[in-house]
Design brief:
The chain is an alpha/beta fold. It is built from 20 helices and eleven strands. It has three domains: 1-45 and 138-175 and 404-464, Alpha-Beta Barrel (TIM Barrel); 46-136, Orthogonal Bundle (uronate isomerase, domain 2, chain A), CATH 1.10.2020.10; 179-366, Metal-dependent hydrolases (TIM Barrel, Alpha-Beta Barrel). Helix 17 links the parallel strand 10 (342-347) and strand 11 (372-374). Helix 12 runs parallel beside helix 14 and helix 16 (324-336) packs parallel to helix 17. It is globular and about 65 Å long.
């Protein structure tokens, strides 16, 4: 019987151990998609207690606490911090098989040196030791401790990015913090608040927006601003991927109807969204940015709780909407328009793995290694089995050696252990093929591949 969470955790052979310890373990982290607040880095935020740094805003953890029947006050609310921690330890102790069981133990060990089993009986010991460490553990020290090289936050296109500027000026030698361009609110024309958002875009750019052409000018102003601030990528949440072939005149009709307080049909909304996506894809390409498409979330399912807590609070799920045809049409349209930017495709439903990986493979080339990436296991599938399946599906339909590796997609500064988790799974995945006689054991060849997937591929892909 192996010890839990020892140095060879998840590594099932000597070859896996060599690959991880000699080639993956000490590589820097290039976290190209997360939801961290740049201001927390700019001010080098410190935390008052473990509940604040560990549970605040983390809807992964909130979900399993709700499963235990805890009052919302002790989950996302204003309940006593130590009682929140007690509730979470109870939830973790019952969540066997959930990746949070592994991640939570790895977080306590990696940041606070705590190796106690997470359970209500150990709350006092965990609370005291973690809080003692937190007195000298600020956000920048956390990032340095875990060897983060670069992180890309997720930013609405109207954000002023003042915090990013402060980090660029003061902390460039410690960690590089880049914004990502997130235009969801200007793409989702049929969402409540769209017209108000366009008025805010007018205020931000001082460009009067009367039609679709004016809209493009205003968006380009924001693209230029983000580019000046070191942005390297855009990020789209396309929960249901609707794409139709249309011209900008049709998109313009839909855009104007919204301002006449007309209710758009699904078809008209799709025309507007499709034309805007095509425009954005060309703008990304011209700047050398990476376009990230997150596909397949079914959001805000519990409307009473959504009205109470807002989005991203743990009430989202996996969607099963069709994706193959609209995705193919969009990527091809971008090619017809002048060329596809470097692209990463993420799916929340593993049924779509082969769809994304094989359609993406139709658009490789242009002198770029892995030009269209089948992205890492995301959100509900970034667990042991999900990562193994993503690696298997990527390897069998594509080229594993060009993969850009893992990300956190997290709002927590303690979540970077997910890179370690992925690297262990990656090394074991490759080594297993060696043990089974499916690959020759050439340590340098495979070790160099592990190094590239762990860090170098992502850095090259994003920075060119």
């Amino acid at each position: 019987m192996k010890s839990f969470l020892d140095e060879n955790f998840l590594l099932k052979s000597k070859q896996a151990e060599q690959l991880y310890h000699d080639y993956a373990k000490d590589r820097p982290i290039y976290d190209y998609h997360n939801h961290l607040e740049a201001n927390d880095i700019a001010i080098d935020r410190s935390y008052g207690d473990l509940s604040e740094v560990w549970l605040q805003g983390d809807h992964y953890k909130w979900r399993i606490m709700r499963a235990m029947g805890h009052d919302e006050r002790f989950i996302s609310g204003s309940g006593d911090p130590k009682e929140k921690l007690r509730g979470y330890t109870e939830a973790v102790s019952q969540a066997v098989g959930n990746p949070l069981y592994h991640w939570s133990h790895m977080e306590l060990k990696g940041y606070f040196g705590i190796e106690e089993r997470i359970c209500p009986e150990n709350v006092d010991k965990i609370w005291e030791q973690a809080n003692s460490y937190l007195k000298s553990l600020s956000t920048i020290k956390m990032l340095t401790l875990i060897n983060v090289h670069t992180l890309c936050t997720t930013n609405d296109i109207l954000e002023n990015l003042d915090s990013h500027k402060k980090v660029m000026d003061a902390q460039a030698s410690v960690v590089t913090v880049r914004p990502s361009f997130r235009p969801d609110k200007v793409v989702r024309i049929n969402k409540h608040g769209f017209v108000d958002y366009i008025h805010r875009l007018v205020d931000a750019t001082q460009i009067v927006i009367r039609d679709f052409g004016d809209l493009k000018k205003a968006i380009k102003e924001r693209l230029n601003f983000f580019d000046d601030m070191g942005c390297l990528c855009a990020d789209h949440g396309l929960d249901v991927f609707n794409f139709v072939l249309c011209d900008e005149a049709e998109a313009n009709v839909a855009f104007k109807r919204v301002f006449q307080e007309e209710i758009l049909s699904a078809g008209d909304a799709a025309k507007y969204q499709s034309a805007l996506l095509r425009y954005l894809a060309q703008e990304y390409r011209s700047r050398g940015w990476v376009m990230q498409l997150h596909i397949g979330a079914l959001r805000d399912n519990n409307q009473p709780m959504y009205r109470r807590l807002g989005p991203d609070s743990g009430f989202d799920a996996v969607n099963d909407a069709p994706v193959a045809q609209p995705l193919s049409q969009f990527l091809n349209a971008a090619m017809e328009d002048g060329g596809l930017p470097k692209t990463i495709l993420y799916c929340l439903n593993p049924k779509d793995n082969y769809i994304l990986s094989t359609i993406g493979g139709c658009f490789w080339g242009d002198g770029i290694k892995g030009r269209v990436q089948f992205g890492p296991a995301w959100w509900f599938v970034d667990h042991l089995e999900g990562m193994e399946k993503q690696l298997t599906d990527l390897a069998t339909t594509g080229v594993l050696g060009t993969f850009v590796g893992m990300l956190t997609d997290s709002r927590s500064f303690l979540s970077f252990v997910r890179h370690e988790y992925f690297r262990r799974i990656l090394c074991n995945f490759i080594a297993e093929k060696v043990v089974n006689g499916e690959l020759p054991w050439d340590e340098k060849w495979l070790g160099d591949m592990v190094k590239r997937i762990s860090f170098d591929n992502a850095r090259t892909f994003f920075e060119g």
